[in-house]
TrEMBL record:
Protein known as: dTTP/UTP pyrophosphatase
Keywords of this entry: Cytoplasm, Hydrolase, Nucleotide metabolism
GO terms for MF: hydrolase activity
Marked site (Important for substrate specificity) residue numbers: R12, T69, Q151
Length: 187
């Protein structure tokens, strides 16, 4: 079986690959996640996933997976919050509204490359300031785009519905990734 390499610090992506039954080797490196301002919001996550892939060399028998997730509301990208105040402002902006979670993924082998993005609509009910503060204080969502994790307390108490892939909102659209890995001949 060819080796699978995951270039991601995200424990959620690592767990999702394990849930897919895949063994992988982890590669972690700090990558500049900037992007041209001229990109459409729908293109940013895939652009960054490709940028991350360019930072690695793929072994002859392996496939590298990179990904990036963003949250978009009113055509504004919400990245990872800088602090509790920033997280509060993001969650307040999402409260009572629909937003999109977009994950870009790049899959690279020695002689083949593909990238794609998946979009999921997420609908939050109105969240009180008290609940937002409780979530931030207890779950410290500073490593998550949009300042929340669907798999955490806020996901089970404040998300009314989603339209699309649940695993995409967690951080890796496993359904589409599975198909792409099969197309590459890695499954």
């Amino acid at each position: 079986m060819p080796k699978i390499y995951l270039a991601s610090k995200s424990p959620r992506r690592q767990e999702l690959l394990k849930l897919m039954g895949l063994e992988y080797t982890l590669y972690i490196r700090d990558i500049d996640e900037s992007y041209p301002e001229s990109l459409k919001t729908t293109e940013v996550a895939e652009f960054i996933a490709n940028k991350k892939a360019e930072a690695f060399t793929v072994a002859e028998e392996g496939v590298m997976i990179t990904a990036d997730t963003i949250v978009v509301v009113d055509n504004e990208i919400l990245g990872k919050p800088n602090d509790a105040e920033d997280a509060f402002a993001m969650l307040k902006k999402l409260s009572g509204r629909k937003h999109q979670v977009i994950t870009g993924v790049c899959v690279v082998a020695k002689d083949k490359k593909t990238s794609f993005s998946v979009t999921t609509d997420v609908y939050f009910k109105t969240i009180t300031d008290t609940d937002i503060n409780f979530y931030i204080e207890n779950y410290k969502p500073f490593d998550k785009a949009g300042a929340y994790g669907i798999q955490e307390w806020i996901g089970v108490t404040a998300i009314e519905k989603i339209d699309g892939s649940y695993t995409n909102v967690v951080g890796l659209p496993t359904e589409r990734l599975y198909t792409e890995l099969k197309n590459f001949g890695f499954l």
